[in-house]
Amino acid sequence: MKILIKHHRISMVLVMSIALGAFIWACATVPITGRRQLNLVSDAEINAMSFNQYDEFIKGNPLSSNKVQSAQIKKVGANLANAVEQYFSQNNLSSQIADFAWEFNLVADPTPNAWCMPGGKVVFYEGIMPICQDENGIAVVMGHEIAHAVAKHGSERMSQQIGTEMASSTLSALLAEKPEQTRNIFMTAFGIGTQLGVMLPYSRTHEVEADRLGLIFMAMAGYDPSTAVAFWTRMSEMSGGGSSLEFLSTHPSDATRIRNLQNALPEAMQYYKK
Predict the structure, then answer these.
(1) Active-site choice (145, 156, 209, 246)
(2) Which of 34, 151, 198, 274 is the most buried (most CB within 10 A)?
(3) What pTM did the predictor assign?
(4) How far apart are the C-alpha atoms of 182 and 21, rounded to whole Å?
């Protein structure tokens, strides 16, 4: 009996040690902010799912016929992507975005919305363009959405949701065993509801972090981060001061966001190149 108990204790210690080791191995650090996060999902697996879902969305949603606005989206997107890649390269962080395949599109949809899927797949809706007004406004939105992808917020949420299942299996294995359940977790974790492009809320931590990083990214690309306050003021006015707009409903309240932005501006301005 004593031998069995001893073996049981050894087994428990071994299991706990392996679990702790896996947890430590899976901890990552968000660039610039330095926040520690749990990431149990590989970029390769996440991006494979992301690119597949993105392709399905593009096939089912017509691109905008507005050549001027479409060109603006691609121009601002390229500038932001280049700035992010340059910063990551200079700080030996390129491996964190090595699998990104940037793409920037404007779809013919009147909804004021925008999102960035893992791997750098960015979509703007025509409905948000009047609120953006110019390239600075576009950069405010795009910087924020790109920040979610670069900081791997979706992967972090998916890791939290899959939890113990992921600890003993890979994402591809879970897809084979429980395809529908795993895809649903992916859709929720990356802010995609029952319809692609219908965003679900990130956590408060993720939103504040995306605001901070978004300002820095747009500043790196040469866009004035101080214009973010004006953009969110316009967005607030369009929604009547509430959060009924689909895009706004996934983000903090107007007063909270503006306060956070103002607090983050001094840091972002250090990266601003006029």
Answers:
(1) 145
(2) 151
(3) 0.77
(4) 24
DSSP annotation of 247 reads T
pLDDT of 149-208, one tens digit each? 999 988 888 776 665 454 445 555 555 555 565 555 555 555 544 333 334 455 778 888
Where do the DSSP E strands lie in the chain?
27-29, 36-38, 103-107, 114-117, 121-125
Whole-number Cα distances in Å, 11 to 16, 21, 137, 250, 260? 9, 15, 57, 45, 48
Which of these, 134, 132, 131, 111, lies nearest to 64 by C-alpha position?
111
Query: How do residues 92-150 score in pLDDT, each as one tens digit?
Result: 999 999 999 999 999 999 999 999 999 999 999 999 999 999 999 999 999 999 999 99
Strand stretches in 97-190, DSSP E: 103-107, 114-117, 121-125
Active site residue 145: yes
3-state secondary structure of 106: strand
> Strand 121-125 to strand 103-107: parallel, antiparallel, or no bridges (unpaired)?
parallel
- Count of Cβ atoms closer than 10 Å to residue 79 Cβ: 19
| Boundaries of every domain in the chain | 28-269
